[in-house]
Structures are given as C-alpha cells and as structure tokens.
Amino acid sequence: MPLFQIIPPLLLTILLASCASQQVSSGPSQRAVVKSKITIRRDVVYTPAHWPAPVMGDLYRPVGAKSAPAVLLVHGGGWTGKDGRWQMTGIAKKLAKRGYVVLNVTYRLAPRWIYPAPVDDLKQAVKWMRTHAVEEGIDPQRISTFGYSAGGYLAALVGLDETQHIQAIVAGGTPADLTLYPGGDLVPQFLGGTKQQIPERFREASPVYHVTRKCPPVFVYHGGADTLVPPEHAWEFIAALEKNKVPHEVYWIEGRDHIAAFLLPAGSVDAAADFLDRNTGTSAPQSRHEH
Hints:
Layout: H1 9-20, E1 38-45, E2 56-62, E3 68-74, H2 89-97, E4 101-105, H3 117-131, H4 133-136, E5 138-148, H5 150-159, E6 168-172, H6 186-191, H7 199-204, E7 218-223, H8 231-243, E8 248-253, H9 258-263, H10 268-279, E9 288-290
Parallel strand pairs: 3-4, 3-5, 5-6, 6-7, 7-8, 8-9
Antiparallel strand pairs: 1-2, 2-4
Helix pairs in contact: 1-2, 3-5
C-alpha cells in the first residue's frame, strides 16, 4: 500500500505538525541560521505548454530573496495516487525560513504515467528554476534536490544526472535499488512490467547504478526498522557513494519504520538542512557518518 494511505488524516496532520517542529541538529551549520519571513505561491505550472499534462509546484520564497540557494522538494507516495505536495509542507517552510527558495512539486503519477515520466517532469522543474532564476531570486548554480520515499528516489535520480548540474542531494527512505524488490505490484506498476519482463529497466531506473565520481554530495537518511524500503537500499547506496568517493553523510533513525521515520524524523531533517548549508557554500564537505 502506498505511503500515507494507511494513516487517518487527522492523526497524520498531528504527526506532521510534530515532525515540522523538530529542532534537533546533528551538527553545526557553517552559517548562522536566521529565520526569514516567507511568501508562498501555490500551483505554479512548471512544465512547458507542449507537455503531455500540466504539472505544478508551490513556490516558497524568503522575503527579499536575491540569488539564494534553492531546493527542488519532492513528495513520496509510491509514485502513485494523488498529488502529495501537502506531505512536504513542513519541510518546505523550514527550508524557506532558513533562506532557501523552495519549489515543492508534484509530478505525473502511476498508473496513468509510468517511468520515466516523473523523472522528465522534475528535470523540467529544474529547468524552470533556472529559467526564472532572476525574477524568483534563485542562484541557478546552487540548486539541490530533496525528497523522501518515492520522492527521495526521484530526488536522487535527477540529482545524479550530470546534465542537471545539481549541487547537493538529500535522499530519505530511498528505494535506491529497484532490483532488490522480490515481487509485488508497486514497482512493476511504476516501471511498466515485472523484473522478469524488463530486467534492464529495473537496473537502469535505480539510482544506485547512476553513482559516479562526478556526483554531487549526498545526504542519506533512513529508518533503521524500515520494512517497506529495507535498510539494504541505503547500504547499497552508501556503498556506491563510498566506492566512487562521493562526499556523503548518513543519518540513521533508529527503531523507526518507513512511515514513522518520515512523521517523526528525530534530527534528520535539521541535519539535512545543515548539510545543504555546508554544500551550497564555497567549501566542499568532509564525508562522515552520523547516527
């Protein structure tokens, strides 16, 4: 069952509110965190007129932003279901108040649209951010991607594409290696066939096989008790990053499963924000592992 569809809406709202209020940081930022006033513009169509379907995002901007770092924020939900931008509202506000211009997007969803449709959408989102950089106060050279679950997968896949020139990636609860899935309907529905039918696509569509030495720094966070996206995905991703000497940080949310790690993320989101601070500046980060 896709992420968040098994939780009553009222309980989910309460838990998301608690998620957004987490203030524990795993490490110091390289710059002082100043809370900015923000503006929010809803339902910005970021795809061009000729696109198969219009796709939207919500733009969060610090008041007076000028050449600010930016984040493409991507929701989860098993690549299917409905527009899930609301899932990421707390993170979007947190980052915008911290000084980032944030485009919190949805994308074309399965089963109507399959891979690579959502990946193509997000590349258009990056293009939109660069095309509108001047009027939206974005530094086009400092765009990062951030997502959880299916959103972490998409944030990773877009960020690892060298043609997108992404500066940093935050990937939470990420299904990094789709070849690890033994069965079920969710991944075949997204990819358009089973592993037996299209084994090459299962590999080609997996972020772990796109890691190279040219990749931007990556922040990986994952629930230690995740059974929906088992920790093996994170370990495979980390191993690929280490093999290719890609700067990275790791935050394990011990004892929490896939959904709990998102709703009650401990210090992971703040640690991710600190990571973005360090990697949207002028100095390169040191690779380290955190628990």
